[in-house]
Write a structure and sequence with these properties.
CATH topology: Immunoglobulin-like
Number of domains: 1
Domain MD-2-related lipid-recognition: 20-145
Strand order of the largest sheet: 2-9-8-4-5
Number of helices: 2
CATH class: Mainly Beta
Protein name: MD-2-related lipid-recognition domain-containing protein
Signal peptide: 1-17
Number of strands: 9
Family: Belongs to the NPC2 family.
Order of helices and strands: HEEEEEHEEEE
CATH architecture: Sandwich
Strand content: 35-45%
Pfam families: E1_DerP2_DerF2 (PF02221)
Largest sheet: 5 strands, mixed
Length: 151
């Protein structure tokens, strides 16, 4: 019985792991970044599938709205990684809370990133900057990843 309980308790640790690192320029850092199926970077982004991530962060000020702004760097080139509008609205994907947010509020955000079948098989870094209504960073993190073919 004890072994079964221990196994159940350890399963989330195998599936989830904080895989984010800090952004540059002193932007507020996410407290935890968990990408489903990734326990350590680089995380595999499977062509033709969505990547689901759960990001925990704390607001440092009152926020009325937020937008997710991803940027990808691959082969020395940095470019926007546009999200479909329905996924870019950060407030629509908060778990257990909603905008507006108060200062010092702890939130969990469910991020969905589509990985299109046309993306090249390449290693990259993805910076996710969550910005407020004034385009100021609320939380930011970087994940090292690689685009892989579906099995």
């Amino acid at each position: 019985m004890f072994r079964a309980l221990l196994l159940i308790a350890l399963v989330p640790a195998v599936v989830y792991g904080n895989v984010g690192r800090a952004c540059t320029n002193g932007r507020p850092q996410a407290t935890n970044v968990n990408i489903l199926g990734c326990t350590a970077p680089p995380c595999d982004l499977v062509r033709g599938q969505d990547v689901i991530a759960y990001i925990d962060f704390t607001t440092d000020r009152a926020v009325t709205s937020m937008t997710t702004v991803p940027t990808a760097t691959a082969l020395g080139i940095t470019a926007p990684y546009p999200l479909p509008a329905e996924f870019a609205d950060t407030c629509a994907w908060l778990e257990g809370s909603s905008c507006p947010l108060s200062a010092n509020e702890d939130v969990t955000y469910r991020l969905t990133i589509p990985v299109l079948p046309i993306y090249p098989l390449v290693s990259l870094s993805i910076e996710i900057d969550i910005v407020d209504q004034d385009s100021n960073s609320v939380s930011c993190f970087v994940v090292d990843a690689r685009v892989v073919a579906a099995n």
